Amino acid sequence: MPYGYNGKILHIDLTHQSFKVETPHESFYRKYLGGSALNCYYLFNMIPTGTEPLSEKNVLIISVSVITGAAIAGQSRVVASAKSPLTGLIGDGQAGGYFPPEMKYAGFDAFIFTGKSPKPVYLWVDDGKYELRYASHLWGETTGECEDQIKVELGDDRIVVAQIGPAGERGVRYASIMFMCNHTVGRTGMGAVMGSKNLKAIAVRGRQGRKNFKVADAVQFKYWSKKGVTRFKDSPIQSLGRLGTAISVLGQSASGQLPTHNFKSGIFTGADGISGELMYDQYLCGAEEGKQDTLGRDTCFACPVRCKRVVEFSNNNFSIDKRYGGPEYETLGLMGSSCGISDFPTIAKANEICNRYGIDTISCGGTIAWAMECFEKGLLTLEDTDGIELRFGESKAYLQAVEAIAAGSRLGNLLALGSARAAEILGKGSDKLVVAANRQEIPAHMPRAKVSLGIIYAVNPFGADHMSSGHDPFYEKQNPDSNAPVPSFLQQLGLNNPTLPRSLDAEKMRFASITQNYDSLMDSLCYCQFVIGTFGGLFEPLEVPEIVNSITGWDTTLNELLAVGERRVNLMRIFNAREGYTREKDQLPSRMFEPLQGGPTDGFKFDHQEFEEAKSAYYLQRGWDVITGNPTNMKIVELGLEWTGAN
User: Does 533 have pLDDT greater than 70?
Assistant: First the structure.
């Protein structure tokens, strides 16, 4: 019997309401591990070339990894993948919480959905048993309402639910899949794919699976499980637990890297009003009684960090329901400073609306910021905006725009396309104001300051993503004579020669590609990058195979595992190449070639020639063809991907 994983994948044909259980060989799991790499394998094999993402020919896969369910810090992530309705390329997103282990305990490593149900349905999986149940009565319900009704119907409050809100049902191009109403697969529009299949929700329960879950080496695994807890007590990421990812707001603004007014500037005068410190002191659940650490901080399965925010308050304008969590750094950057909003309650309310209706806050904020600049430049009129004075910093208008996307008004339907597609319809030069790569809105880490991250934004197969590689400051020295040590986790990846700030030389591209492989591995092991990724954390790279081996009984090495991460990046790139993707589409938006305004990063911008040279250096590091930007035959053979037929 396998240790750590079930060895079972459930295929659900929604058109014919039928099921098939696949039992892949152990060698398959060792080659792909689970999560994103496993999903890519099936997407490539099952989606016909040229498939329209919102058609029934698209395939939606939700999976965990070979080590999901083992009680160790950071090991509670789930991956959803399909062809993206936002980008038109391969789509991929991750979320945390308690769904991943419950899915594993329910008996399966992956759910693969094909076709389209004639009527709305939800999947119910209970200790290895499965059925589709009609969900017409749930269609149109917000996430909280839907979750409550499913738990009542199935008679168990401990059921864990993944679902879409009305945004996914209506095909908002960046609709989310919501797990427990506040953990989000937000990027690339996986919720819209789920909605296009008339699939409202997935409910899982694993009573016996939890009891029967076994690891190969219980003694060694217990050592690593305890090590994560004890290390956290003296770890720098304690501050991440206290303030959440919002800890970055003030530092990013002070360093000129907080996206402001649609990425025109990196400094925001209202940063104090949206900071993690302010959220902790005033708005976390329990703040009035000084109980933020027990009431205002949530966590994922078996994780001591507890970085998830729980916000609850009321004021004269609105109230915030703690069920929908609280804003992360990305939300505060894209829905806050980038839109000129310095009022935390307003952003918290927008975050709640997004989680109620199932909307990605990054793309939502980026699209609204684009619309605000269009309005201020006269490219969008009051007629276009349904009478909303959509200007930077206008809190009321901002919330009206979020609600319009959720409800589907005239303005909402335009913004629901994402900024790049909306600009294609609007015209008037509005495409010059779009801040997206491959039609996906850029996250809240400033690429004109973190330049190798900017290259990754351009070349990443599923669009701009801030969790797909290491961030530049980890591998930069402030002057040529600096002898500051390289972080040990980078040394273990073979990175020992840090470059100067904003360098785009071959060594920086080596850093970008190697850390991209490592973070790609994390997305295939379904491991949280704050615990074990290129941001540092509780475990280091050389410890990863020891953790994996203690659970699975394998004898993996770090190099073998890194090859899985590299295999996943290449397989994604091959998928896109089949859709006609080449080097020419690896681009950053026009704004990145304009100088930032104000603060320490004043004047920072990309140079077109340097950008193209850095891309070439990146392709060479990857073993890709410099002309096409796609994997060479040598690389395809090296990674065991000959079966794709790519050349």
Answer: no
Predicted pLDDT of residue 481: 83
* Measured distance CA(437)–CA(448) in Å, rounded: 14
Q: Give me the half-sphere count of Cα atoms (radius 13 Å) on the Cβ side of residue 375.
A: 28
In angstroms, the CA 80 to CA 402 distance is: 24
235 pLDDT more than 90: no
CA distance 17 to 118: 9
CA–CA distance, 596 with 267 (Å, rounded to integer): 9
Could you give the CA distance from residue 135 to residue 202 in angstroms, rounded to a whole number? 11
Structure tokens at 531: 């615990």
Position 1 pLDDT exceeds 80: no
Confidence (pLDDT) at 535 = 66
The neighbouring-strand residues paired with 162 are: 179, 202
- Asked whether 58 and 82 are in contact (CB, 8 A), the reply is yes
Alpha-carbon distance of 353 to 355, in angstroms, equals 5
Instruction: Calculate ∠ Cα 234-237-242, nearest 5°.
Output: 105
Cα–Cα distance, 209 to 106 (Å, whole number): 6
As beta bridge partners, residue 92 has 81
* Dihedral sign of CA atoms 621, 624, 630, 633 in order: negative
How far is the C-alpha of 179 from the C-alpha of 187, rounded, in Å? 14
Q: What is the pLDDT of residues 419-447, one digit of tens each?
A: 999 999 999 999 999 999 999 999 999 99
Helix, coil or strand: residue 312? coil
Cα dihedral sign, 565-231-477-445: positive
DSSP 3-state assignment of 571? Answer: helix
For 462, other C-beta atoms within 10 Å of its C-beta total 24
Count the alpha carbons within 13 Å of 43 in the hemisphere toward its beta carbon: 32
Residue pair 134/121 in contact (Cβ under 8 Å)? The answer is: yes
Q: Please give the domain boundaries of the chain with CATH numbers for all domains.
A: 9-212 (3.60.9.10), 245-434 (1.10.569.10), 451-644 (1.10.599.10)
E strands of 432-487, at which residues? 436-437, 440-441
Residue 214 to residues 208, 427, 552, Cα–Cα distance (Å): 12, 58, 9
Q: For the CA atoms of 144, 146, 148, 152, what is the dihedral angle to 10 degrees?
A: 180
Cα(first)–Cα(last) distance of the chain, in Å? 38
How far apart CA 194 and CA 200 sit, in angstroms, is: 7
Three-state DSSP class for residue 195: helix
What value does the mean pLDDT of the chain take? 97
Residues 2 and 29 sit within 8 Å (Cβ to Cβ): yes
Half-sphere exposure of 425 (CA within 13 A, CB side): 13
Task: Give burial (CB, 10 Å; 0-12/13-18/19+) of 27.
Answer: exposed
Confidence of residue 482 (pLDDT cuts 50, 70, 90): confident
Quick one: CA torsion of 555, 557, 559, 560, rounded to 10 degrees? 20
Q: Return the H-helix or E-strand segment holding 231.
A: helix 218-233
Q: How far apart are CA 187 and CA 503, in angstroms?
A: 29
Measure the CA–CA gap between 399 and 632, rounded to whole angstroms.
Answer: 48
H-run or E-run covering 145: helix 143-154
Which residues are CB-neighbours of 232 under 8 A, at least 6 positions away?
73, 238, 241, 304, 305, 538
**What is the distance between the alpha carbons of residues 3 and 195, in angstroms, rounded to a whole number?**
34
β-pairing, 183-185 vs 177-179, is antiparallel
